[in-house]
Structures are given as C-alpha cells and as structure tokens.
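Format notes (please read before filing issues)

Several people have asked whether sequences and structure tokens are stored in separate files. They are not. Every record keeps both together, in the order shown below: the sequence lines, then the token lines. Line labels are part of the format and must not be stripped during preprocessing.
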Amino acid sequence: MSLDDRVTDLERRIAALEATQIIQTSQTSQSPDAAADPVFWALEGLRARVPEPGAVMLVGHVELPDGRTAQWQEGAVTQDLLELDWATTSDAFAALGHPVRLRLLQQVLAGVATVPELTATEGVGTSGQVYHHLRQLVAAGWLSALGGGRYEVPVARVVPALVMVQAARR
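Then the structure lines:
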C-alpha cells in the first residue's frame, strides 16, 4: 500500500471516528437555538464536523415498554457506504420484507413478548406460522429468543428498526 493510500485510509478512518462522536460533543455544547430545534441540531453538528462528501448517522434514545432504554448511535462516512457491497445487507432487509414479520417486530417492541401473545395478534396466522417468521427475525438479528417462548428486540437493533420505519415513511 502506497503512502498516499495509507494517508487517505487514515483520513477516512478519522472522519468515521469523528462522525460517531458528534452527538456526545453536541450534547455538551448545545446552543440555545439547538435546544429550540430538537431535530436539525444533529444535522448541523454533523455538517460542521465531517468533511465532504459527508456522513450518515443513526441516533436515538428510546425507552421501551419493558423498561429497557436504548441509547444508540452509529455513523459512517459517505464514501465507505458507497464502497460497501450492499448485497451483504440483503439478509437483514429480507427478514423485514414480509408484513407479518414487520407486525411481529412492532408487537415485540411494544412489549408483546410471548408466542401465545403474538399469535393473538390479528393477521399473523397460526402459532406454526408465527414461529416460522420469528425464526427468520432471530436469524437476521432483529429479535433474540429469551427461552420459554419469549422474545425481545436487542437494544442494538431498536434504533435501527425505528430508523428504517421512519425512512420508509418518506
């Protein structure tokens, strides 16, 4: 690897690290205007800290019905995302590509945790069909099996799931 390639790689890594620190820095140095606009202060912080061609961040603070709190952020510089083989993400997307699986994921996030409770959800089918869909969600990492027919959304997947729903609404 040439020196220029190594420097370019280091610059990209530093930008990625800086992108993941944006929210923590912004929370300690918010201006009064930032408090008045709870959405775009993050965007302005990102733009101020990450060089072009920019970066993407997922960030959220969520208190779940079961009492767990998901505080999560992840960032990636644009170039890294554009160079990524997007096909490697197809399993995660495919697991969410069925209306019943989306409904089950939503129910589990809302606090419905057992197979009998999930089977009682309108439109999800029989317990055998529910188990089939749950297996796919577990295999893709969207759910964790707790044993005894109980499921939960891993904390690290709460914010990404909600971000994907928000993105799909656009």
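For reference, the curators noted about this record: Residues 64 and 109 are 7 Å apart (CA to CA). Confidence is low (pLDDT under 50) at residues 20-32.
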